[in-house]
Structure formats: structure tokens, C-alpha cells
Design a protein that fits this description.
249 residues, disordered N terminus, microtubule, coiled coil, cytoplasm, MAP65_Ase1_PRC1
Amino acid sequence: RQRREKMPPSSTTTCTSLLQELQIIWNEIGESFNERDKMLLELEQECLDIYNKKVEKTRKYRAELQGTLAQAEAEIASLMSALGENVSFPRKEGSLKEQISTVKPVLEDLLMRKDLRWKEISETLTQITEISSNIAGNDYPVSSGPEVDDSDLTQRKLDELRAHLQDLRNEKAVRLQKVNSYVNAVHELSEIMSFDFSKALSNVHKSLTDSSKAHSKSISTDTLARLTELVESLKKEKHQRLLKLQGLG
């Protein structure tokens, strides 16, 4: 048998006493039975309307909870896919509130991990963009941040980007070493051949003579090619001068 919810005794007593008082007042007034029946029907309808409103409000609340639960579960699935992780969590059998209380901490943890992974990928992409810009010779790189693919925030993606960044760092170090080697060569030749060292380097790229170190030295392919050409030209000129001196001797 289906269990019926009982009205609290206090409410039942109050309704009964009020109805009894109403009957007494009607007797004192001399209200007709037809009028009494009409008023009782109105009372029943008003009570029914109140119950209907409460039921409708509760239905909407239930729908909201169902929507919240469905949205949370969908977001968890999306986050697990983006992070490339499979998070297991117990699904409670019970009320909607109990189920929501189960998935809520799981969702919060995944969102926190997503934010952390997004920042790691964004920072790595920013460094990749900066070094790539240096190598390409862009003096004024794009100031806007890199675009992060929110659908792929896996650890594998981060590892790939970090490996690429390390390769670029290695290439940057090699290029910087070459630039410094060429700069030293030009400096040595300037002392031997008595020409303006700073002017010669500035003609290649102004960053090579920036003593304030506000800007890093240019390591672009174009700068390396021009430095190579400059050093070879100076060495050739030095050799020609030596030949002239030998001829004079």
C-alpha cells in the first residue's frame, strides 16, 4: 500500500478549529446552507490553487536540479576528454541533491586542473612564439597572447610543446653563440684595421651595439648572414692590406 503523507497535527487542529469557528459565525449570522456550501467550495478552490502553485514551483525546482546535474555531468565528460584523463567517481543512488553533491567536487577538481594545464600550455606557447619571432627576425612580435586549443589540454600536448620549446632554446643558444663569435671577430679586426667597431655592427643590426641590454641581440638568419658577410669582407680586406704592405717591403 502506498504511504500517504499526513498533515502535521498542529495544522490539522488549526484548520479544524477555524472551520468550527466559521460554522459558529455562520450560525450567528444566519447564513443559508447554499451560501455556506458556496463559501466552502471557494475555500477548497483557494486551497487547491495554493497547492497547485506549490507543486508547480517544486516541479520547476526539480527540473532545475535535473538540469544542474546533467550540465555538471556533461561538463565533466568534456573536461575529461580535453585533459585526456578518465576520472572515476561514485554515482550515488538517491535524491538529486545527493547526486549533485557527489559530482560537484569532481567538477571543481577538473576545472582547477584545466586552469592549471591551460596556463602551462599558454606560457609554453608564449615562449615558443617569442623565440620563433627572434629567429625569424621580427623586431616587433605580436603582443596578443597565443591561442590555446581548449579541446586539447592533454599532458601529451604539453610535453610535445615543451620538447619543441627546448629545441628552440637550443637553437637560440647556438645562434647566440655564433653571433657573439662574429661580434668578437669584428672587434678584433677593428683593433687591427682601425675602423669604427660600433658603426660596423650597427649597420648589420642596431641590437648588436645596444649597451643597455634593453633588447636581446638579434639572432635571426638575416643577421647571421650579414655578420658572416661582414667578417669575410673584413678578413679579405685585411689580407689585401697585408699583401700591399708586403709589396711595399
